[in-house]
Design brief:
Elements: H1 3-12, H2 18-33, H3 43-50, H4 54-60, H5 65-83, H6 92-119, H7 127-147, H8 155-177, H9 184-203, H10 207-217, H11 225-238
Length: 244
Amino acid sequence: MTRTEAAATARAYRRMSVEERRTQLLDAALALFAVRAPKDVSLDDVAEAAGVSRPLVYRYFPGGKQQLYEAALRSAADELLLCFAEPQQGPLTRRLSRALDRYLAFVDGHGTGFSALLQGGSVAETSRTTATVDEVRRRAAGQVLMHLQVEQPRARLRMMVRTWIAAVEAASLIWLDEGKQPAVEELRDWLVDHFLALLAATAATDPQTAEAARRALALESDRGPVGTLARRLGPVLSDATHLL
């Protein structure tokens, strides 16, 4: 080992708590996953990015790459779940917009890693990794239902919200595949409109959803997303008045 390498190693081994060191290694792994698929990231890569030795990585992740992958997935999942945590104040569309801003910022910042972590298969997929991704979806749906003020949602409303969460995830992956086009603000607004469309369509045949929609829409402004969408739909729907 050269003097420079020895100095770098000494700096890397400065005192850290177990949690601090583990966080450092996970941050290094997630930074690599942001630009390369997990299958293309080795433990040596993580060690180099963190400025530590390979044995140290193994000390914290004795299960090797699979354990590191699962831990990185758990860390990413925790961050994604925070995206949907929003105070129950103000119009629903404004809350959804803020949550989507955080979610899409995560997607934008993690790119390749986001795709690999959600799609799986880049490292041996296990029941734990599948359960972690499913947990993100379930808890995100639970947050949306909380904002709709529905404590015991029935099947139709649950399906509607879970369908929207799946659409957000799919749209994010497609957005990455399309070179992050359209602009992220346009994608966010389109996803809010998509939620409103699903809500309206479900409310037309489900009383529980209709009641939730009435509560939510009562807080909306005619200059907000709901009013804007209604004005845009006016000319389109006017051509179908013969169906009414």
